[in-house]
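cache lookup: miss for this entity combination. No prior model stored, computing from scratch. Input as submitted by user K.M.:
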Amino acid sequence: MKISARNVFSGTVSGISKGAVNAEVSLDLKAGTPVTAVVTNASVDRLALAVGMEAYAIIKASSVIIGTDLHDARISARNIMCGVVANVIEGPVSTEVDVEIGGGNTISAVITNESAQKLGIVKGGHACALFKASSVIIGVK
Amino acid sequence: MKISARNVFSGTVSGISKGAVNAEVSLDLKAGTPVTAVVTNASVDRLALAVGMEAYAIIKASSVIIGTDLHDARISARNIMCGVVANVIEGPVSTEVDVEIGGGNTISAVITNESAQKLGIVKGGHACALFKASSVIIGVK
Amino acid sequence: MKISARNVFSGTVSGISKGAVNAEVSLDLKAGTPVTAVVTNASVDRLALAVGMEAYAIIKASSVIIGTDLHDARISARNIMCGVVANVIEGPVSTEVDVEIGGGNTISAVITNESAQKLGIVKGGHACALFKASSVIIGVK
């Protein structure tokens, strides 16, 4: 399987909580970073997800928000990963920002130029990537 | 807290309806515009969200769809905000469209060039911004 | 109604399963392709969605992931549509990929350049488009 989603992180399923339509699935990445996903119950069943299984958290770069000064952020987005800006690619409308988050993982975000400039995103600087649980796709081998 | 999400609107929590996994949270923006969000129950608990609290609705520009002639639109997206196009920034693939929606708020959308051209989006024209409740992140101070 | 979302597919509602907050809605497109959406219960009620009704599945190009070698993919994303790449438009950060999926439908995705290059996406090649049920908006006439 090869997919365009820039962020594919390997981990282990640590929790599953099913609702009527959706389920919340927790993963622990190799580096210990937790990731929370909301997928449909039907997907949990079809993939036979179970605690302890190896799985991937897949997040499209356009779903990722970049933040700074998030130490005291109180925000509903369940996933926040901080690190060092490894690369910045600017276009006329969009800017790609890649953040090294430890454990050998880099998370890519596509944000608007105006945001990148307003936040002062530069290579080597500190930044956090945040994304909603509903933006996460779960994959298994 | 500084984040790349272009759309951060201040308001007051007007309703919370919890399900098994997700919760629907309603906000009234300063200008009276309602915004509906779907976040996880765990986020509602962690942020201690309650009716009457001040909160922010945060929406990434790439989650926003631009429409025209939406007066009679029957569509599941819970949030529709109409106004005047304040700015258009074109790139080779993407175009940013900023719409003034009243109450001092502007909403930014990133759409494809082809869509912008097909819809005839021009500065000063009328346009509506629409986004799903699941695209909204809630923040509190 | 005219909207910027590049992907608007006509079909018939084949199933509705309501939860506490969200509902899962299934559509069969004209070509027989199934599409699964997760929308709020309030939207199902407001649109008076019912099995057998004609409806549209609306998906923003930025929510669509492009994949290859997905034959044996085990992934939570509920919607996968495969076909032939009809067009590729490259920008400095983003690339638009249009895939003909049969039944007269083409699905557009906006991905990063790096992904397009890594996947070797070329006009005339085979590719699959995948998107989460939560990325689908339902529209009715």
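stored under new cache key. Chain B touches chain C through 42 residues (CB under 8 Å).
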